[in-house]
Amino acid sequence: MHVFLTGAGGWIGRHTVDELLAHGHRVTALARTEAAAAALSAKGATALPGDLDDLEALRRGATSSDAVIHLANKHDWANPAESNRAERTAVQTIADSLTETDHPFLFASGLASLATGRASTENDLSLSHGPDSPRGGAENLAFEFVPRGVRVIAARFAPTVHGTGDHGFISYLVAAARRTGVSGYVGDGDTAWSAVHVHDAARLVRLALEGAPAGTRLHAVAETAVLSRDIAGAIGRSLNLPVKSIDPADAVEHFGFLGHLFGRDMTATSDITRTRFDWTPTGPTLLDDIAAGAYA
Which SUPFAM superfamilies is this protein grouped with (predicted)? Predict the structure, then answer.
């Protein structure tokens, strides 16, 4: 299968490229810089110059391939409206390009918009609608293309996709601990995040691309709920720093933008995903990764 991929230079994207190539797929990936293009070429992939705002490059990549994986996101925490706009526009452009092809279109989504008051399941619908909502309401927008002949697949990733080299949320928590001299958790620390190792996440993306039907919502989740105080404790032990509760009113000052998220439950199960794709996570747990020095 010839796969067009955005976000190939990102954390999940790099591993997804490796996973696809290892299983005989041909990969063309969006590359913002010459260095990114060279890295793709060294792996055996083809670079397509462009970025998330280059809509013509997105169209060329989508129309010249057998499948699309969209993992890129601006992640502009200082200007989330711009990230939401770019995500919605990219999804719209790719889906328009794939109309009436029955080609797979797998895109990254998340768990934050599934406000259920419990661990979410794959049957829960996203509550984000419209361009002003998180991720620009891209998940619901994409599913509008299922009856228009696009094999839409939403990959809802755990808030932490961890492993050595991760520069996501856990790395921000580690940076806050180094900066303040304290590994903190918000309030009583009984909120929790789901987690998955990056190798397991990349394998699931490949399995879903190969066999998921249109309208699939999958959960890249290996651990349903890791308590925030346990995450803080593991970071504190790794850095030899004290662990303490941070008052919710001081969370943003302590953690930065992550203070709005670390005190929230973002949990989900993956029973349906595991059964449907015969997917069994085998990577280390989040706490094992932290203890082994993945973030030290």
Answer: NAD(P)-binding Rossmann-fold domains (SSF51735)
